[in-house]
Amino acid sequence: MMNLTPTLEKHYTIKELNELLGFSRSKIDKLAKAGKLHKIKVGQTVLFSASEINRFLSECSQNGKN
């Protein structure tokens, strides 16, 4: 039987990214403003998708920096 339930991607707040990656809020803001980390705004809340975080981390590991 086919699964018709859509899967929702995990999204992280700045606070969660801070805990997950150890980046400060200002570092995350700078990365977003530089276009290196793409954010999603939902009202007043800024979110980052799990796929975006994975893309960023993969890019960092290829370049050897963040």
Explain what this protein looks like in three dimensions.
This protein has 66 residues and is of the alpha+beta class. It has a single domain (11-63), classed as Arc Repressor Mutant, subunit A, CATH 1.10.10. The protein has three helices and three strands. The protein has helices spanning 14-21, 25-33, 50-63; strands spanning 11-13, 40-42, 45-49. It is globular and about 45 Å long. The protein starts with 10 loop residues before the first strand and ends with a helix.
Q: How many domains make up the 3D coordinates?
A: 1
Low-confidence stretches: none
Mean pLDDT: 90
The H/E string reads: EHHEEH
Number of strands: 3
Going by helix content, strand content and strand pairing, the class is alpha+beta
| CATH fold description | Arc Repressor Mutant, subunit A
Biggest sheet descriptor:
3 strands, antiparallel
Helices, by number, come to: 3
CATH class value: Mainly Alpha
Q: Architecture, according to CATH?
A: Orthogonal Bundle
Radius of gyration based on Cα positions: 14 Å
Strand fraction equals: 15-25%
Distance between the termini: 44 Å
Helical content band: 40-55%
Assign an overall shape: globular
Strand order of the largest sheet: 1-3-2
Pfam family, one: HTH_17
GO molecular function: DNA binding
Protein name: Helix-turn-helix domain-containing protein
Domain Helix-turn-helix: 12-60
